[in-house]
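User: When convenient, might I ask for sequence and structure tokens for a protein?

AI:
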Amino acid sequence: MKAFCSVSLAVAVLLPAALASQSTSPVADAFRAMAQRHARNLIASAEEMPADKYGFKPTPAQMTFGEVVTHLAEGNDLFCGRIGGVTPPKRDSVASTDPKAKLVARMKETFQFCDSALAKVDDSKLAEKLQVPFGEFTRATLILITSDDWADHYSQAAIYLRLNGLLPPTAKKPM
């Protein structure tokens, strides 16, 4: 009986807190968490690649590392703006041949924009149609496209780093 009372008391105390912490927007919350994870890895990749390797590309048909970085920054403004329903800030243009510091700073700016643009996204409008240059998609689909795009380009950056004798951020042992 004593054990039953102890368990009942624990449930009575802990259950309301557990229920209160459950999200009403698990998709949006998961996407924000993925955005932060991808931001850390992509920014760390851009910082890891030496400045003199920003023109590197494995084959003539592929983008240079600098082009990958600028492509990601442009995509962040487009995708996060559409998903969040906000207009991206007007930015000075950057070229893939600009100095590494400028390209890394731009990537950081655009991921900061993603944080603010996605802050109020919730699951209530996942079915809403959004227009992007390559078609019309639901917000849910655009969330998946964006997450896939980040993963794809992180994989690309990781390969570029490895081809230059460097470890990508997720391959390094935690400190």
